[in-house]
Amino acid sequence: MVNTIFFSHIVHLRHCKDSDRLYKVTVDLASEKCGYAVNRENLIVHTKVLNAHGNDVSVRIYWFLCSQEHPPKVSFSIRKLEMRTAWERVRQLQTEDVTVYGKILGKTLRGVLVKIEGLRGFIRTYVDKHREELVVGEELPLKIIEVREEYDRLTLLHRAVSIRIRQLEVGQIVSGTIRRIRDYGVYVDIGDLYALLPTSKIFYQSVDHPNQLFKINDYIKAIIVKLDHENGRVVLGTC
Q1: Does residue 121 carry a pLDDT above 50?
Q2: What proportions of the chain, in percent to the nearest 5, are helix, strand and coil?
Q3: Closest C-alpha to 63, from 110, 31, 91
Q4: What is the pTM of this model?
Q5: What sections of the sequence does the record tag as coiled-coil (predicted)?
Q6: 8 A C-beta contact, residue 159 and residue 99
Q7: What total number of domains does the chain contain?
């Protein structure tokens, strides 16, 4: 089995077409990373131009260092390596709680598909009252709430929803307008998001279906009984 070391870097260069200079930069990076002088013959290098303005170019360099005991013959997929780098990047962004911007690719019944760092992500929009206004191609400020590379799952939340939830507390009385009625409860617009008032939390009267008590656009007051900051859920109870 061939042992290799793989890394990815973004560098800013002038005259990117100078391949010798690119190799020199890569050798320097590899030597610095490994802690010893790396032999150019043991490197496999792939480059991808990210941005170009005149002679100034930003380049992502993928480099592979083969062990001294093996010749540099490695079979690899650049696409897989780009995906690996992208997953590492979104994990870092999640840890740092950085606002990321994703372009909308399409809508589904349960949410919105977006592109983040070259990956397809999913926005949970059942709590987002602006879902109907979202347009394919639009960029949204988002919070990363789940990264599961093994399941190819990247879940996000609209940053405005995340900010609004942080302003709420369990036990707080809120008011809003009923926008959706389902058999399991009603969704109440409380500003930037929909909170769920489950049928089981309608305490003052036993009902089989919420439409026995409520209509669309009814204005109600309720108490927050549960907050899920990570998943963007607010659960209400009648008060």
Answers
A1: yes
A2: 25, 45, 30
A3: 31
A4: 0.56
A5: none
A6: yes
A7: 3
